Amino acid sequence: MTTSLPYDEDTRTRVNLETSRIPWKELLRFFAGGTVIAVSNELDLVEVAVQISHDNKAQVEQWMLAGKVARVSDELAKEWLETDAVLWAVIVKPWILVQP
Q1: Helices 57-65, 45-53: crossing angle, 10 deg rounding
Q2: pLDDT tens sequence across 58-89
Q3: Which of 11, 41, 43, 35 is nearest to 93 (CA)?
Q4: pLDDT of 4
Q5: Is the peptide bond before 94 cis (omega within 30 degrees of 0)?
Q6: pLDDT for 1
């Protein structure tokens, strides 16, 4: 797990305040555009957003290689649609990060 540096506290606070719960069906058009990223429950959604906003490519790549951060698959999108899932979400332009 990555530890935030003290100067990240403003970013962490801002990102935390920008998270919200949203029904998956409201994100379908963004999914179709390829901009929705699934974040594993093993990770802290806010921490992932902070690392992406700071362009920490090494950490993000490590998460991607471990399968903990990835574009939402068609199968997962279908499952969330069928179960009427509501997800935690935060925007880190151009991405929308989501977590069940």
Answers
A1: 130
A2: 999 999 999 999 999 999 999 999 999 999 99
A3: 35
A4: 46
A5: yes
A6: 46
DSSP summary character for residue 19 = -
Asked whether the beta carbons of 31 and 22 are under 8 A apart, the reply is: no
Residue with tokens 């403003």: 10
Structure pTM?
A: 0.88
Amino acid code (one letter) for 72 = V
The yes-or-no verdict on residue 15 having pLDDT over 90 is no
**Crossing angle of the two packed helices 45-53 and 9-18, in degrees rounded to 10:** 120
The alpha carbon torsion through 37, 48, 12, 25 (nearest 10 deg) reads: 20
What amino acid is encoded at 96 in this protein? Answer: I
Alpha-carbon span 40 to 30, nearest angstrom: 19
